[in-house]
Amino acid sequence: MSGATLVEPASEKETAAVLQDVNATGRAVLPTGGGTKLDWGNPPRRADMMLSMRRQNRVIEHAWADLTVTVEAGCTIAELQRTLAEHGQRLAVDPLWPERATVGGVLSTNDSGSLRLAYGALRDLIIGVTLVLADGTIASSGGKVVKNVAGYDLPKLATGGMGTLGVITRAVFRLHPLPRNTRTLSIAVADKTEMQQIISAILGAQLTPAAVQARNGNVDILLEGTPDGIAAQESAIQAFGMVQEGSPAVWKAREDLWDGSAIVKFTTLPGRIAAASASFSRFVVQATGIGYAQYDGDFERLRAAMEQDGGSLVILGKTPYDAWGSPGNALPLMRAIKEQFDPKSTLNPGRFVGGI
Amino acid sequence: MTPRTLEELRGILGPHGLISSDEELQTYECDALTNFRVLPSAVVLPESTEQVQAVVRLCHRERIPFVARGSGTGLSGGALPVAGGIVIGLSRMKRILEVDLENARVVVEPGVINLDVTGRVASENFFYAPDPSSQSVCSIGGNVAENSGGAHCLKYGFTTTHVLGLEVVLPDGSLVHFGGKTLDMPGYDLAGVFVGSEGTLGIATKITLRIVKRPECVRTLLAAFPSTNEAGTAVSGIIAAGMLPAAIEMMDNLSIQAAEAAVHANYPDCGGLLLVELDGPIAEVDALMAQVGEICRQNGAWEVRVAQSEAERALVWKGRKAAFAAMGRISPNYIVQDGVIPRTSLPLILSEIDQLSAETGLRVANVFHAGDGNLHPLVLYDRRIPGQEQAAVRLSERILELCIEKGGSITGEHGVGEEKKHMMSKMFAEPDLDTMQRVRCAFDPLNLSNPTKVFPRTRLCGEKPGEYVPHPLEVAGVAERY
Asked: For the whole model, what pTM was predicted?
């Protein structure tokens, strides 16, 4: 953001002091982590300061025997995974650009990845969060245990909130063991109809793939587990098509879409993947019904069709259109929540849905 | 409740949808936590979203507090009525509206019984994963309010993991939709916030659930240990080996005795019983089950057996799920507690509970979801002995304090409700609770939807500038303005 000052607080308390001051003086703040997704969402109406979390990058506690980790927001995903791997564990997500993307940024933009099929999304893996609100309030919710229903689930509210309710300073996650063995399979498909048939067949069978994605001409399947379990699943999958050993690199195919083209994220039902991706020639779509594609056609018409079908179309990157589309009839309630958390619109003003 | 209000309610619901005689109202004076009782002014039994909306609009207009209620199986007093308020019972809204197997979605009304969702899709090899022990009677609406768990959340997650969309009547009577059948709808994750809010943010009238494909096989292993300590070490061993079982349950000797007396589950008589369930592809489960058995033996299990038939497996679970109710066989009264600790603190907290038990002379039976550190200590007492009930309450609260000290939680699945709201300030700092109440103020600025629950102090929300109208609770001195 040109003209915005860059501030890098070293602690939660410093973050609170900075925000309190900014809020009191009526300035606007754009929180940032690794800066990989600064152009996601609508351009903020104002941005007087960029608040970088990169100095708050410690893994505070890896309670490996309890399969949890407490980590500061500025830690990159890759650094976190390296620490967890020392005890054979991982945060079971595969977001974009893990070497640069931070915990706080990945949470705020809700970028889970293809492992969601087996392990759930960020919303399912985050068990605690600490937020600094615009007025400097430091608030924690959730906790350090996986099972916990005490109080409101603010970790979920912060996840995907684009930093509009508070600045995430730390998060607690439940972890999974690193898989003992993995195997990537790829099935070449002639067209989108066949692509859909194979995805539906895999989802309809009693198989437990860690991830399934379709991209141009291929369906990729990630298997994890014991050698016997993987072999048995592989032979079951052979009934669906011509199976070839795939490269682990195919799970980075989503990143390859970002070659300067305009990118959209679309959501659909698992059984409607072929129909929803009809307009795309370069795309990666996960079997959960979340897809990414290059698209420079008529956004508004495509969005209307997607929304008509119960899905959504979000533009990821600079665009003259509204990046989000319709948040539905709960928008007034979303605005009321924003009003309670950040009445002066100090945090990322205008970046989220409906001008929030 | 004025006669005019009652008449208006009757007009909305018809003659069979309104309960207002004291005698009939008594059915609704408590949920499954029976030591709190409040008689509501009226109970309404709507059959449609429109009726729920009409009732809530009336409540909003007249500033009448309301409490939604499902099957009334809650264990924290979440459905306890509010004096002078209305109970909105949702048990008549029990239609399964849509079954979409291709996309693994089911849309239900809130009164649908948990087990009936699985019942509806079982023939197609699907199931609904959250399985609280009360699943044969509890409702999906209640599960949503409490974010119910169950034995299998170690692998499959909680209610919140499986709720994708909600139709909600907000406390002002307006109808809104959160999430949907597809994932990641633009906007805040309001479904995520609503699930587990214990009825304080509005009333769900339609719920879109994710169902799960039944695994190729399910195997359940029973292992008998000399004590819960060895059983606990075995649990750590299983987790450390990189496995994620569908469930790991533990029972101590007192619980085993009670379950045996109640349902003859054929459990070995031991100091610590472990029940480990693995599911998935047969080849995977067979390989891992052999390892689980080995880990149990290495840690001192003197009997390890795998259920050999579906009937045997069902019996094993019947004993576990009956454990709470079975306490009636060995004690006239008991408190069911629900706390969570990091799993590694299990041996420590068990010895502390033993010590508390010895000091007070009260027996404590222990049933755990051991895989995720969720304890269900059952404090046994006799109400007829003066002072014993108070001692039992103190003991069970002391256990929760021990959970907090270990970095755990005061509730893993039963909710805060009425019972534990005073414990919230021990677990959270004031700014934490204030921030949660900001959410509440956005949903329910007049504080009408299940007020007085969850938070230790009800805080009223600042309204827009204008004429100051004191809230009835404020006038009565039970709440302060926020």
From this structure: 0.95
